[in-house]
Structure formats: structure tokens, C-alpha cells
Design a protein that fits this description.
single chain; mainly alpha; 155 residues
Amino acid sequence: MIGFSMNNRLKGRVAALKSFLGAVQLLQAEIVFRQSALPDILPMMIRECSGAASDFFRQVLRLMVEKNESFMSAVAFLVPELRHFDLKWDEIEWLASVGQIAGRYDAATQADRLSGVIARLEQSLDQAQEEYGQKGRLYRALGLTAGVMIALVAL
């Protein structure tokens, strides 16, 4: 179980990074090309993105609507929730910086700063996929081997 649990954490991190990467890319495109306002972009992000990003930005939108929070303060408030997606601390910081960038500067500056976040998330996704490819098999094999050993000892 432990081996499969560790494998699932690696797999979950890859899926979360893909989801958040897509969300930040969509946010950047909407800000630059359509010049949409954040309240209009968030429902689209929730619909278009799946998994972790959709869940996270749904909570952000809820805080903005129900408690009249700004995008920046809603993201900052929900940053601790990002731990549940098996992300590393630097990845959480990059995603938290999206709250400080979006809606705060002119479109060109937002696009430039979001490009930096996207580049870092892409790097992190590549590393996570490589780690999953290498360690995922190892964790599954160790889990299976330990299970067989326990079954043999129990006999």
C-alpha cells in the first residue's frame, strides 16, 4: 500500500501541475488577447480546466462572490489549500504569485510576469514527469514486493 500510495502522490503532482499550467496559460491568453476582466475569466477557467486548477479557482471565485474578496486576497487566503495537490513549496509560491500579478498591472506586464510563472511550471512539470517515470515504477515494485514478502512471512 505504501508503494502504491507514493506512486499515486507522484501521479497526482503531475496531474495538478498540468492542470495549473493550463489554467495560467488560459489566464494569460484571456488577459492579453481578449483583455477580459478577472471576474469574467474565472468561470471560464473553472469550465475549461479540469482537476486541481478547476477546484482551486472555484474556491477563489466563491470567496470573491460570497465575501467580496479581491482576486489577490482570495488566492492568498487559499494558498494553504494548494498543499493538498502534492505540489512542492516553490510550485505553490509560483501559483500564489499569480494572485499578485493578475489584475494588478497593465496587460503587457501581466503577460510578461505570467510567462515567467508558465516557464517555471513547465520546468517543474518536466521534472515531475521524469520523477514519476523513474520512481513510480520503483515504488510500485517495492509495494508489490513488500506485499508478497508479508504474505509469505504470514504463512
